[in-house]
Amino acid sequence: MDFINALINGLSLGGTYAMIAIGYTMVYGIAKMLNFAHGDIIMVGGYAMYVTLLLVGQPIVALIAAIVFCVILGVCVERFAYKPLRGASPLAVLITAIGVSSLLQSLAQIAFGSAPKMLMAVQISGTVTLGSIHIAYYTILTLALTVVIMVAMTLFVKYSKPGRAMVAVSEDRDAARLMGINTNAIIAITFAIGSALAAVAGYCMLIKSPTLTNTLGAMPGIKAFTAAVIGGIGSIPGAMLGGIVLGVIEAISLSIPGLAPFTDAVEFGILIIILLVKPAGLLGKARREKV
After folding, report:
1. Cα dihedral 211, 242, 94, 275 sign
2. Which residues pair with 127 in a beta bridge?
C-alpha cells in the first residue's frame, strides 16, 4: 500500500511538473527557444498571491490575481526581452533567458527580502482514507486541476482558431506567415498561456508547502524542463507524459529510504537513458533541418 500511496503522490507531483513543462514545450515548439526564466514565473505568481492575501485574504482571489499578473509578466518578457532577438543566435537567446531569470529572482529579493514568506491561507490539510490508502486533499485538488488543464489544452489546440494557428506556426513559421497568421501574436499568446499554467503550478506547490522564497521555481523549473525533454520537447502530450513519468519516478524514489538521497540523480539518469534510446523523447518526432 505504501507503493500505491507513493504512486498517487507521484501523479500529483507529476501533474505540477506537467503544467510547467507545457509552458516550456509550447514556447520551444512555436518560438524555437528555451525560456529558462519560465520557472521564475512560478515564484512571481507566488509573491502575487502573497500580496493579494495581505490585501483581501481570499485564496481564490489570490490565485486569480497571480494568473493575471503572470500572464501580463509573460507577455512583457516576450515583448521586451525575446522579441528583439528574433533571428538571433540560440546562444544569445539562451543567455538572455538566464539573465531574465536572475533579474526576476533579484527583484523579488529586493522587494520582499530573503526571509521565507508563509502563505498559510492557501495551505490545504487533511486526508481522505480509503482502506490503508491515504490521499491528501491537496493531492486530489492537484490531480483534478491537472486533468482539467490537460483536457482544456487538448481541446484548445485541436479545435480553436488560435490553437490551430499555433500548430501551423510550430510546423513552419514562414509558411504560416504567408497564410496570413500573425506569428508575433501567436507567440505572445503562447507565452501568456504558459505563464498562466506556471501560476497554477505555483498554487499547487504552495497548497502543499506554503513556504515562499525567491528561488521557489528554480528546481521545479529545471525538472519540468527535464520532463518536457523526456516527453519530447515541442509536444504538448509529450510534456504531459514526461511530467507524470518524472513525478512518479521522484515519488517512488523518495519512498525508498536507501534511494531517497539520490532521487535527483535517478531522475536525471533516466533522462540520459531515454535520450540515448530515443533522442527525440517518448512522443517527440525527429525533424530534418532545412538547409
Report:
1. positive
2. 136
pLDDT 10s digits, 95-110: 999 999 999 999 999 9
Sign of the CA dihedral with 168 first, then 173, 174, and 180 last: positive
Joined grid coordinates for residue 189: 499568446
CB atoms within 10 A of CB 222: 15
Of 112, 111, 101, 118, the closest CA to residue 212 belongs to 118
Structure confidence by residue, pLDDT tens digits, 196-253:
999 999 999 999 989 999 999 989 999 999 999 999 887 888 888 999 999 999 998 9
Report the alpha-carbon distance of residue 148 to residue 185 in Å, rounded: 25
Element (H, E) at 128: strand 127-130
Among residues 287, 182, 238, the alpha carbon closest in space to that of 24 is found at 238
pLDDT digits (tens, 9 = 90+) for 262-274: 998 999 898 899 8
Q: Where are the chain's structural domains? A: 2-217
The SS3 assignment for 116 reads coil
**What are the strands, taking DSSP E only, across 139-226?**
211-212
Number of continuous H segments (helices) and E segments (strands) in the chain = 11, 4
CA distance 77 to 71: 10
* 134 bridge partner residues: 129
C-alpha span between 270 and 272 (Å, rounded):
5
The closest of 150, 186, 34 to 98, measured between CA atoms, is 34
Residue 129 parent element (H or E): strand 127-130
Classify the phi-psi angles of 27: left when phi > 0, otherwise alpha if psi is within -120 to 50, otherwise beta: alpha
